[in-house]
Amino acid sequence: MFKSRDLIAYAQAAPLGLVLLCFLVAPIIMIVIVSFWGATEFSIYPAFQFDNYAFLFGSPVTYKVFLATFKYAFITWAFTLGIGFTVAYFLAFYVRTQAMQTVLFLLCTIPFLTSNIIRMISWIPFLGRNGIANQTLMSWGVIDAPLEWLLYSDFSVILAFVHLYTLFMVVPIFNTMMRIDTSLIEAAYDNGATALQTLWHVIVPLTKPGIMIGTIFVVTLVMGDFITVRFMSGSQKANVGRLISNDISLLQYPSAAATAVVLLCTVLLVIAVLLRFVNIRKEL
Amino acid sequence: MTKMRYSRRAVLKGGAAAAAASAFPAPMVWAQEIKDITLRQFGTGVSNLNDVATKVKEDLGFNLAMTALDSDSVTQRAATQPDSFDIADIEYWICKKVWPTGNLQAMDVSRIANFDKISPIFTTGKLTPDSTIAQGTAPSTVGFIPEPGATEFADEVTNWMTLIPTIYNADTLGIRPDLIGRPIDSWAELLNPEFKGKASILDISSIGIMDMAMVCEAMGEITYGDKGNMTPEEIDKTFAIFTEAKKAGQFRAFWKSFDESVNLMASGEVVIQSMWSPAITAVKSRGIDCVYQPLKEGYRSWGGGLGLSKSLTGMELDAAYEYINWYLSGWVGGYLMRQGYYSAVPQTSKDFMSENEWGYWYEGKAATGDIVSPTGDKLAAAGDVRDGGSYEDRMGAVACWNSVMDENQYMVRKWNEFIAS
């Protein structure tokens, strides 16, 4: 028997539960089901077979592409964390007035008012062989010939990722930093800690939940992306998202679903591991 | 007011009946109901032109609702949802895949007024009596069936046509002559180390593989039985050559959409790549020198046509025939030819083009004045000659038609490997 208090609590949670059930759980179940189906060239038929998974795990391309996906995620994570932490640190501890903090924080978000595809594509003319970057470097005499690796390379892919997703790191880290009791920092200084020691032994541990939330954002976004990799690598590199999008464009939905399920499991696994390190509930 | 309209309708009806009796047999009789008819056409973007729908309403009185999809979705829809469309605007290789499903009905050739004037490419397959039929899914090989209801194609011209050809062209490599500075005359140049980091092909497997095959054959590395229907060994060998080139940094990028190909070429990132005719025009319109280079090995060609859904009957079917006859009567042909494509019945298009336009686009003569696209952009100036020359020169040199292979799924997997390598 439910107590009436329980009942009210359940009723309050019901709308969200229902939305999640319809728009999150049900589609995922559908994807899992379809991943066992079979496909001909232009139709899919219900079945229960492991062909899609067998092909996926049997192909060296899969491992290569998953590896590339992890590589992008890891490098992007390292850069966004470095930049995001620095920006948040500056905002939280160097900017004195709260008004100024708000202004600067909003300034960070301004580029994000435009579509992220536009922000990504605008790198292309900038980095191109005859682009602004190469022309500037050449006019300065730094290089004699245009740098080819600026565009359509891993460099440009990661550059775009870092540009697109750093804010997702800044926000949660800034948020946690703002909650740090400044008396703790003063106490550290009073006890003779250097600035670096304070940073490492006081601020970083207290910011961990924010870092973790930012990490989850960045890792999931990068691992699920396909359009950035396609545009910035000139279609020459592949990550898991591109495998899925290729399958979909060829109407191989079951195979796309199987890849999506494997990707989903991988991402969940990564997040599970991350959550072992930090209890983010403390933050929420 | 009501009375007025009634009387006007009555007069129109009488007039229409009289006219029908004399000049036009069937169509005009149902001039009253025709306004309520809507034919649903779907197809790829190239020929799904809103101007055509507008003109149909104007000339024929009924509505044409157009839906543009990518070619994979088009195939799927034609194969699985016959009731969702009346007219399918599909490519010939799609027809090869879709016809056996029985979702389309053959057209009675005797009801097509201009059938005799349709280019022989689509009937006998031979532009001139001594031409050979190109490799791939040549339109003539899937253009006819022996009898209504048949799911096999006929080997010769019959009274039952599968698709009425609408639009077609011959594709080749696009180059930047200003950045290359020497003549290019072979597909093999795409993998010439001279253009390392400055070449591109398109990342659409079914077409990309054909361009690859043209290159490998031109290099003398592989001799194909049929480039349009490769064996697994041929596919493997082709990808081995291109994977090696990719790893050596031959390609700057691969493109998937029209505008990407234009930008790659216009920005100078790429100097030689597979390209489509309107993309060349788009590069030129920015004032950049770009040539649709004719190559000695010939062109890779494609073509589309209109097919009728099997669920079309009665008045709608009559309207569809009316629409097809109108399509071949010249206005659309002129419109398409002025974009750089070809019309299935070139002669009728002539009346809808100026002498200068006809000379430039069809006969390969130097333009005597500005050549302007149907949308008003200037495409060429006096003295310019179309790349590749006349209709006979271009369509007579087709080496291969777009096609779908028996080993398609294998090829697609290899393609994914190639991109990931």
UniProtKB/TrEMBL annotation, chain A:
It is a multi-pass membrane protein. It is found in: Cell membrane. The keyword Transmembrane applies. The keyword Transmembrane helix applies. The chain crosses the membrane at residues 7-37, 72-95, 102-124, 155-174, 253-278. GO terms for biological process: transmembrane transport. GO terms for cellular component: plasma membrane. Coiled coil: none annotated. Belongs to the binding-protein-dependent transport system permease family. CysTW subfamily. This is Putrescine transport system permease protein PotH. It comes from Aquimixticola soesokkakensis. The gene is potH_2.
Automatic annotation (TrEMBL), chain B:
InterPro entries: SBP, TAT_signal. It holds the Pfam family SBP_bac_8. The keyword Acetylation does not apply. Keywords: Signal. Residues 1-31 form the signal peptide. It comes from the Bacteria. This is Bacterial extracellular solute-binding protein. It comes from Aquimixticola soesokkakensis.
